[in-house]
């Protein structure tokens, strides 16, 4: 347990960038947890549904990229209109620009999910997270990097580790 917790702490310090998106921070956490799971030899066989779920995720990513391309064209057009246009057209341009940014963030989230899912196919992360890691480390990490605790622990796990969550305030 000590080795597992200290490995998690070291890996979290190495892997987490405070400027990255929330989904990238969660990926960093999972990578740190993966290092612990490998240390503890928590292996599993590749799930039968892995290939299909990866294909579905790939399709979602491809569709999102197409949507982004269309949105980029709309933003360019709106920008042209806004240069010489009315206030309404300028507002429309800003709206389209924000939508494009949102789509790009969604794409990053999907790509991070794909990476995470593929990297975890043979490692059982739950075993180390529930039985070997000091939850105070995870809770403190969540607070430090403004990651909602729900992204790390599900409802049952949050109930189990309520004491650690309460300690962190």
UniProtKB/TrEMBL annotation:
InterPro entries: DNA_brk_join_enz, TopoI_C_dom, TopoI_cat_a/b-sub_euk, TopoI_cat_euk, TopoI_euk, TopoIB_AS, Topoisomerase_IB. It comes from Cuerna arida. This is DNA topoisomerase I eukaryotic-type domain-containing protein. One of its GO terms (biological process) is DNA topological change. One of its GO terms (cellular component) is chromosome. Residues 11-22, 52-93 have a biased composition (Basic and acidic residues). The active site is at 132 (o-(3'-phospho-dna)-tyrosine intermediate). The keyword DNA-binding applies. Residues 1-146 form the DNA topoisomerase I eukaryotic-type domain. GO terms for molecular function: DNA binding; DNA topoisomerase type I (single strand cut, ATP-independent) activity.
